[in-house]
# Entry
Amino acid sequence: MTALRITSASKRYGSAIALDNVSLEFPDNAITAVIGASGCGKSSLLKLCNGLIRPDSGEVQLFGEAINYNALPALRRRLGYAVQGNGLFPHLTARQNITLLARLEGRSEPQLNARCEQLMTLSQLRPEHLDRYPHQLSGGQQQRVGLCRAMMLQPEVLLLDEPFAAIDPITREDIQHQLLALHQAEPSTTVLVTHDMREAVLLAEHIVVMQAGRILHRLSSADLLSQHPGQDPQAILRQLLIEAP
Amino acid sequence: MRHFSLTVGLVLLAMGVALAGAANAPTAEQPLRIGSKTFSESYILGEVAAQLLENSGFTVERKLGLGGTLVAYEALKLGAIDIYPEYTGTLTQAILGKPGLDAAQLVAALRAEKLELQVFLGFDNSYAIAVSGPVARASGLRFISDLGEHPGLRTAFSHEFLSREDGWPALRQAYQLGLQPTGIEHALAYAAIEAGQLDITDAYTTDGELGVRDLLLLQDNRNFFPDYSAVLLARSDLPPEAAQALARLNSLIDRDTMQSLNNAVASKGMSPAAAASTFLREQGLISAPAHVARTRSERVLGYTLTHLKLTGIALLLACALAIPVALLLSRFNRAARALLYVSGLIQTIPALALLALLIPLVGLGEAPAIIALFLYSLLPIIRNTLIGLFSVDPLLSQVARGMGLTDLQRLWHIELPLAMPTLLAGIKTAAIVSIGTATLAAFVGAGGLGEPIITGLNLNENRLILEGALPAAALAIAAELIFEWIERAVVPSHLLN
# Structure
């Protein structure tokens, strides 16, 4: 059974087409990068996966069943979700942000603390960070808190919407490696939306290239790199976008 | 939708319970409620009636200083008061609108309304036109008709005289006058004339200050002003023992007596209660001072507590209705906008007009005051709740939804805390506006800090005005401080600007 599958999904806003008959199956427990220029439909694709967008036609299957749009909250708790600019709640401390959902789920205090501890170690956050408000943390620390929050309930599917776009390059590299470490420790079916091909080949095993609401290419990172030896990943992306099949 | 009707139902129920408690439930011994209008003569006559009845063994509740003729009359008709002093001319002209009635016809017309002219007090207090002494002498003014040649004199009339059909509009026509009057609070007019800022105002022939200040009453040479015999107007169901006690006042007060009583209050700083009890004792109608005056601190404390009660109940009810309704409607942009318009509309109704509109519906006392304050509090609370919710970063709402928070959890854990600073500012505004507006509650007999302010204004006594104004200002500042403290307690400091 595939955890996440999209079948013939289309979505338009007025006359603008966001998604045009997209079908996609995400390999279980692997990271799939969805890449393309702004407005190519990659963010819409991600929102399709947790029901923030409902397709005009076609369907999205999670855990073997079509999404029930009347019971989204319960379903979404089995998914992790992190966004660009971290989306941390400014009135909650880092710890409160990370544990909010688990508390609403009724997890016990020892359980919460144990899980928090585990995530902190994996993402290299220090204990004193946890009691700070988001604005008291650096951009990189905020992003790590955002990742921890998404992974708190050990989701089977993790949805990441350009999570590192707003971070400086040096910090970004650190966090990219922390994401890999987190993924290795707790593998989940991960969708990573990005516009950075270097990030895509570094993190993802599978790459989906989108343009104008359609899927242009679908290939593995390994194949991609072997087909374009020694080339800069961004240059490869430019080439792929021109070579529409 | 079910949640919506449930919430609204609960809030309405709470309002009903609170109002039932606030309204004047008749007590076992059924006190007699004495009203008066807002000028000192009316206060004095109200006190005279009240103290005489108290001395005759009745329990009396004073609702003095009701805001205007129609308020007092409606209150009597509705049974919110039992007695108040009135004038026959006002009854025929302003209330019944039948200028030609003689005394017998007037009595019959009032009986049809279940009202009784209980006592003819013995003097006539007509309207008159008063002119500044120096101006009158310089221009040789003696008759009202002389004013036709001086249309440029600075004129201000009391608001009631200015708008009553038998007041300025009719007078202007009868004498063909070209004056351009503005409105003024009657109690301030004489002081304005003495200060040289005003030349002409309307007066009552029994005004105590007429004998003291340099003013000339112009002669009504076309017999325009009708007979304004002072009476005690009562409900027909007044207990016969009370009617009997009051009958002793028949023809007891002539114009000179009334003028000197008015003067004692206006110029000698006596309270209406003291003037009334002195008079009644001189007449041998009461033995001891019937009314033990409270000390000033007792008075101020009482006023302040009533004031807090009025604003507190109104504010709690407004929060209970406005916040849930705003939360529900924040999901529907158009409905939210409509709600803002309606509550904004309420805000444009002048407070006194709103109070007057409420009297026929809920009577006198605390109920109309609380309802009016409640209505005025709705707008700032609804507006700020909506603005607070609308200004939450859409990304945060999206993240909350995407994470799997239900609508209610998102509202409670994310949107409401983020809207809290704006929401609290709305409640704070409502509280401070209510504390100010509640001073008008005294016009409908609800008491509070407006009572000394309005009495002081009517009797031209600054000390009384301050007795209400200073605590009201202190309450407003206290409200500000309390809300700052609440803000600090519930909102993380970095979210406060």
Remarks:
- The mean pLDDT of chain B is 85.
- Chain B touches chain A through 20 residues (CB under 8 Å).
- Residues 180 and 347 of chain B are 31 Å apart (CA to CA).
